[in-house]
Amino acid sequence: VVVVLSNGGPIEMPWVDKPKAIFESYLLGEAGGAAIIDLVFGEQSPSGKLSESFPIQLSDVLADKNFPGTRDKVEYREGLDVGYRYFDSAQRAVRFPFGHGLTYTTFSYGELDIELHEDDLKSKLVNVSFDLTNEGKVAAKEVVQCYVHDVSASVYRPFQELRAFDKVLLQPGETKRVSLLLSYEAFSFYDIGVKDWIVEPGSFEIRVGSSSRDIRQKEIIEFKMGESASAAAQASYPPRSYGVVEEVDDEVFSRRFGGTVLEAIDRSIPTNHAVVNRNSLLKEVSSSSTLGKFLRWVVFKGATNDLKPGPSFQRDQKLLEAAVCNLPLRTMVLFGSGMLSFELMDAMISTMNGLYGKAVAEFFVALIPFRKKATNRSIEYSPVPIEP
Questions:
Q1: Quick one: which of 219, 144, 207 has its CA closest to 178?
Q2: Residues near 198 by Cβ (< 8 Å), separated by ≥ 6?
Q3: Considering the chain, what is the average pLDDT of its residues?
Q4: Which of 5, 168, 213, 237 could form a disulfide with 156 if both were Cys (CB 3.0 to 4.6 A apart)?
Q5: Superfamily per CATH, domain 45-236
Q6: What pLDDT was estimated at residue 254?
Q7: Residues with Cβ < 8 Å from 142, sequence gap 6 or more?
Q8: Of 141, 82, 109, which is closest to residue 206 (Cα–Cα)?
Q9: 385: pLDDT strictly greater than 90
């Protein structure tokens, strides 16, 4: 059994050990089916790599505890620990690592040959070369990946960061020389104190492999020249041991954010008294005002007009209801074919917010264009008297 996935992002796969193989197709176009057949049945060799880590479960993602947040605010407290940077730094197990991808052959990586050029503080160039060999019996492509690990940083940096990659086509038994160029930016970090990118002097480990968890070759280099991190940078991101998950409380997040955190994330904050605006969802306004309920009903009725009775009627109706509930008010104007203006929508928003005086004035302003159109239409189509 081969499972073919068609999805927009990582999913939980507790059944991962049951199929013989899993083929990740993501979201393909109309010719995707033919491509899948060629790849699954060996007419072509797969050559893709995952551009994201697949966690074992959703709760393994560091940002999970802060989502969806409150109605008006989502705090990205994970900071630099996003995706593979977090999983590799926390040394946390994943279902499939960033950069992972199999094909119908195997590749071997030769020893690294590194050329380092360091002219001054801001001029650094590292050329990483190695031999890549196709050890199998079919032609295939390998995506070689080069990660950089800052060994002696005075601030916290993710354990490793992808800094270069290349896709190489090799025939059976063929060997090619691969070269990857790392510039100043590959070793730098943004210092919030000096408001610029800097590279500290010290040791860096060059790590080359087939994924973030499949490193085949590595070697240490050293920069003798560099800049020291500012006190602000060190206070914002002090160094810490890898394998430790940092709890970012209000104080730490405020220091990194550069301002005061108004409130901690609280999923239980009620939303029925929130101020309505153009980005408010229909499900939000329908729970707080009669007009909001009416707007939701109108949009839902319009969306379901073309549904035909049948086995899937209730399922399709439920799907449309979920879609309608999550529509922002502004989409009623954008998809309204000119029947509704933003001025008229603003008047309804003021009504839902209880600002009735403002709403009356906005209704009057919103109706002026319609009155002008009606007048112009009557002039345009008024009959011309025929002289005898």
A1: 144
A2: 188, 189, 191, 226, 227, 229
A3: 88
A4: 237
A5: Immunoglobulins (2.60.40.10)
A6: 78
A7: 47, 103, 107, 132, 134, 167, 168, 170, 210
A8: 109
A9: no
